[in-house]
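README: folding subset

This subset contains proteins for which both the sequence and a predicted structure token string are available. Records are stored as plain text. Below is the entry for N-acyl-phosphatidylethanolamine-hydrolyzing phospholipase D (406 residues), shown exactly as it appears on disk.
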Amino acid sequence: RRSAAPREPMGEKAEEERRLVGGGGLRAAGEDADPPAAAQRGSRKSSGSRSSRKSFRLDYRLEEDVTKSRRDKHGRFVNPWPTWNFPSYSTIFRFVVLEKNHSNIPSSKEVLDKELPVLEPYFIRSPELAGRTGSGLRVTWLGHATVLVEMDGLILLTDPMFSQRASPLQILGPKRFRGPPCSVAQLPKIDAVLISHTHYDHLDAGSVASLNERFGSELRWFVPLGLLDWMQKCGCENVIELDWWEENCVPGHDEVTFVCTPSQHWCKRTPMDDNKALWGSWSVLGPCSRFFFAGDTGYCTVFEEIGKRFGPFDLAAIPIGAYLPRDMMRSQHVDPEEAVRIHIDVQAKQSVGIHWGTFALAYEYFLDPPVKLKEALERYGLNQDIFFILKHGESKDLNVEEDVFE
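--- output ---
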């Protein structure tokens, strides 16, 4: 089985880069190491069971004062990178009032069906095939940031969004122009759900309730700090809340490690809860496959650190949409070229473009993200097949090589 040991950067320059991105202070952990803080938190604060584990799954410990998330004097989480700059009031005003919206979503269903077809996922026609990937990996795009990943005997779901609107009310707010390829009732058995942050297009109360109603305590939820109470109020029992760089697993599947890794974003669901919950990406490290979910993010140097510690990844799911105008979106949403940089930084063998073609959340033309992605890949001299696009409901099987991490 591959070890998840981090790869140490060499030289003074690399060490300085590590300090800047908050990745310093690694020290070895032996087989008799205590369980990680994340495991203790999950066991204590969740009513879900947890498999016994002999040692810290990752072969290191992290200095908490350097690598953990940070809060301001009011206790709200902050982005520690110089690339973060929340839009000014004048920028927000221009975005809302003055900027021209170029998304141009067709009103004709026939045109949309031609340009962005919604396919019936394979698991509706052939449910017996779900989860049967051997040493490989299968990914299915269910729209926006919702992907179904099958790897190492587990079926994972990211940021489940099956509602018609990304809003607290289903009569107002951004409405999807491409419907979900399936309902929660049509999904195969899900083992784990990864939540990146609290925005309504990524954390949908209706979808959470439906998943919990169907799978109950058999479904393990992985969420960043600050979300446990909200999840439990929704009735979810098997919830694991993690800080950046903390890890845990699904009961009975100790060989697959789930690590909450950083991203550059922010959280808000109500007028008063700005950044009271953390945001993040997720690294899923199995014996045969490694998967990275970027969530929602602006570009920052932490992705290179994630790649050094856990890469290469067999698949990364990286956002490519909702990026214009740049003065409004740059800190919080990558554009297609920055998505390619993340692909390179995390050392992904292949990536799939997500966070586009479902909701009109920004002002780029609705079909531009894959076009701009293709152009960016050409500029970087990369094969277009390694960063691919799926239709809604479409799946792709990936053959995973038997790598050995030293």
